[in-house]
Every structure is written in C-alpha cells, then in structure tokens.
Amino acid sequence: MDADNSSADALSTIWKHSYKGGEWRSCVNKSSGGLPESNGYIYVEANGGLNQQRILICNAVAVAGFLNATLLIPNFHFHSIWRDPSKFGDIYDEDYFISTLENDVRVVDKIPLYLMEWFDHNMTNVYNFRVKAWSSIHYYEEVVLRRLLEEKVIRISPFANRLSFDAPPAVQQLRCLANYEALRFSNPILTLGEALVSRMKERSVNHGGKYVSVHLRFEEDMVAFSCCVCDGGEQEEKNMIAARERGWKGKFTKPGRTICPGAIRLNGKCPLTPLEVPWTTRVRLLPHRFKIKQPNLMHELLIVSLTIVKSLCFYLVISLINY
Known about the structure:
Layout: H1 7-12, E1 18-19, E2 22-23, E3 41-46, H2 50-66, E4 70-72, E5 75-76, H3 88-91, H4 94-100, E6 106-108, H5 113-116, E7 128-129, H6 137-151, E8 153-156, H7 169-182, H8 187-203, E9 212-213, H9 220-226, H10 233-248, H11 261-266, H12 276-284, H13 298-308, E10 317-318
Parallel strand pairs: 3-4, 3-5, 3-8, 4-6, 7-8
Antiparallel strand pairs: 1-2, 9-10
C-alpha cells in the first residue's frame, strides 16, 4: 500500500481493478423504506477471533434480515487464549451499527422486559438452536423461522460458520451492508489506528513510501490446530496436545486418526514462526534496511492494519516504524 494514500482513498480504488475482463462492483444495496412487523428476536454468541467474529456478525445480520427478525447485539465470548473481555461496543461503534441498518434489519441492545419475563430474565432459558455448520439460508427459513414465530426469542450458539457462503443475492447484500457499511471501529481504536498509520507514513518515506501488511497468525490455538512441530521439544508437544484437547475435545484423538507433523510441513501447511517471517521477507521481498515490528506489539498492530483497510481485514503490520 502506498504511504501517501489515506485508508479511504485506498478503499475507494479497490473497485477499479478489473476481474476476469470486467470490473468489481459494490454489492451494497441499502433500503430506504420501513420494515414490516418483526417476527421475533434472535440472539447469537460470537466465538473465535476478530475475523471469525466479524464474519459471524455479518451472517447474523443476513439471517435476521432474511427472516424479518430483530437482531440483538451479538455477545462476544471470553476467549480462552487471549483472555479478552471486550464487548461489541468496545470493538465497534454500536450506535452507528444500529442506525446504518435501521431500514434493512432491526438491531437492538436489549430484549423487551415483558418478553424476558417469560424466561425469568435469563438468556440461558431461551431455546437454543444447535445449527449445523454451513447450513443453507433455506434451513433457517424452513426450520428456524417456525420456532422463532412460536418462541418470539431464540438463541443460536455457537454461531460461527453456521451459514453457507452460497446464498441468494438478497442475503449476500445484507452481508455486504454489514461488513462494508455498518461495522465501523469504535473511536478509541480508530484514534490509535490513525496515530500508528501516520507514524508508518512518516517512517516509510525513506523507503519509497511503501510498507507491507501481513498476518502472522501464530497463536497457541492456531499452532495446536495445525499439528505442526515448531522445535519446542517435549514441553511444546505436551502443551499442544493439551491445547487441542481444550479447544476441540477429542477431534484429534479419534480412532484411526494419525498426525504426521513432518508430512504437514513438507506439504507447506505449517504457519511461519515469528523467526521465519523476517527470513522470508528478507529473501523474497525486503532490503536489509527495512525495520520489522516486534511480536510483543501484535495486538496494537492488528488494530492498525484493520483500520488501514477498514473492513477488508488485513492483520499484523510489518511496518517501517520503530519505537
């Protein structure tokens, strides 16, 4: 990305690049009229990291809009790896989210008290749908809607990956509206992002005004899921076995399943370690003068790169700045 471009300018140029002889077109199509009476309230629980949560929110908007339901602001799970207690309003501008969607999908921050009285004011008493992964939108229309009309409030947990990517245009447009228009980061995150982007622009001037954004994706849960060996010895092996069991309970110990770390690495399916990333960039891309952000700043840089591309979700910035 050029350092002399603002994030808004960079985002606006995306649609100019040709694709298979044509041009990319924005999929957002906002409504201008009012909404019919709601069929009920849908409550979803968002698990996973920032990217999974964002996809989940977009899917929740699409499902609620398709079923003419009211969406309760999604609840973020407390992540066992990052120990992050953030709520929706800590990451995103909640009021802006609600107002942007007001003509397409009703979104509220709480369910009316008279309805919660039916469930003793406890969401765990609300009927919970265990939806299969990658279910079609027609499943929601044929199965979930019927129960929604009966109960008036339903819960779907977990909700990650619970909607197929293959969906009608009306559903895809709601996803796009949520992702590209309604989801705006909260002011503290935007302020931090703008400060760090400004610093990157300033420090990259001596290198042709360029910087690189890359996502290391090197966290305990991801490394455990990959089943790769990262030369941490016997203790690493014990830790990864424990992490797999905590996160996926028996998925990797099913009878007949064999884990071959060497074969996984030869097939190129192992993540690069924080040590291997600078080696790779040095050999393939960057001159020796480039500075690389230290891994202990991963969280701040994650936010920065998300701000740079707004909603396209590039992650950890390898920048030209140095504290």
